[in-house]
Amino acid sequence: QIYADLKSTDHGIHWKTVIKSRKNVESLGGLSQASVEGTTHSVKKEDQLAFADWINRALADDPDCAKYLPLSSSGEDLYKNTQDGILLCKLINKSVPDTIDERAINKTNLSIYRRAENHNLALMSAQSIGCNIVNIGDDDLEKCKPHLVLGLLWQVIRIGLLSDINLANHPGLINLLEDGETPEDLKKLSPEQILIRWVNYHLRNAGVDRRIRNFQEDIKDSEAYCYLLEQIAPRENGVMSGPPLSEHNLEQRAELMLQEADKIGCRSFVSPKDVTSGNYKLNMAFVANLFNQYPALEPPEDMEMDVVEETREEKTYRNWMNSLGVQPYVHYLYSDLQDGLVYFKLYDIIRPGVVNWKKVIQKFNKLKINFEKLENCNYVVALGKECKFSLVGISGADINEGNPTLTLGLVWQLMRAYTLSILRQLAGGDSLINDAAIIEWANAKLKEGGKKSSFSGFNDSTLSDGRTIIDLIDCIRRGMINYDLVKDGASEEEKMSNAKYAISMARKAGAKVYALPEDIVDVKQKMIMTIFACLMARDMRSQQNGETS
């Protein structure tokens, strides 16, 4: 009856009218042969223009990018120029330096196969820094699918803009603490929340009553931006808030404000219209770039504080979670997992159906929030025991309180279970996949490939020079390794060089490797296990697809 009543009204006609009236949105037809007739994907012109301009600025001095840049002011050639994967790889390194070993990028003889290798390298590397690439494959990049390319670009750019907004890189952020807060409270804030506090800190210093709570409605009149720019810009640049604020037309005021921003080289991401329309994504990027260039935060002279930087292990786990698309997004491992919700998403990915969502509290009552979060965490531990995790001495309270040691212990077991679950799916479900099976497979593959390398376990010290992993990659993808670039591994520098090459070449082969080069050199048993497991999964997938090494 409800369906019949709705169908008899004009909702459908009204809806079509609304969606056809969107401006600055290009609708593209379905791009796969399987697309249902009428399928469309939307591309925002302002995003296209902003990302093209950012790439022009970020990669202007890179000689390998000279033949692609500058991208046109409209951004129309953005997709064609990212087709061979080189710009994507370069942008990833710009956002998170040294993610990709430049020696792994194919820069010449760019056949469709060598472009596909670059695409794999870019996608697997993007995943390793926390990008969610679940719906993006190398074929999508080869076909230059605009909505997918823009989605990937935004994730990479966003990570680069926000990655340094923390106390370790900017001790002066301590100035943003409110009464009764500690540095630990600042870690619990997302980068966006920190940016809003930063803007308000400078508005307060400017002696004005204006404050912002978001990057949409509160910045449309450019007033906050005008005062912010005057506060953070070096005096010799002559940035002033007066001229823009004397203009009453908001779009013209935004243009004058951006001209002031241009005096300090920060006219990026937004156009006047993006400001007046309150485009959240681009305005947040604009402010993040201002912060990165001119934070204007001096730490208090009497400050005595030991800033604990995020460890490699914590960063790897956080990036792994975010690459799986968990919500909410994980910024700080300990506070963002305290309500248990991210754990449930991970359990559901590893063992679909294991979570009884009726037992999960997803919306919290303000009066009972602490009790409800603890209830969730108790269920997290119960699920871990059901999955046969080793959780001796771990209670829901430990997870809820963000106990570092116990949180890391549980997260590692989740990551390990995820890696092994992929292998089991490829092997047929009932097969026994454990550490011994992975070691046996790797040694057999090395022997089959005529390599002298072998190892006894994931803590084998001979793995530190990276050569065993490099040899294994060569057995999986014949001819991919350039042995002229492989060192003997006699010194720490040579070991690190090999480790960087091994990680990037594994990703280039299509392995979902999250580990870092340092993990190989230091022979970190847990992370090395994941490298071999991911290579085994890649080999099994190749064989199932009928590929040859």
UniProtKB/TrEMBL annotation:
SUPFAM superfamilies linked to this entry: Calponin-homology domain, CH-domain
Coiled coil: none
Stretches assigned to the Calponin-homology (CH) domain: 45-161, 189-295, 311-419, 432-540
Keyword Calcium appears in the UniProt entry: yes
InterPro entries: Actinin_actin-bd_CS, CH_dom, CH_dom_sf, Fimbrin/Plastin
Keyword Repeat set for record: yes
A single Gene Ontology CC term: actin filament
Keyword entries, A-Z: Actin-binding, Calcium, Metal-binding, Repeat
Descriptive protein name: Calponin-homology (CH) domain-containing protein
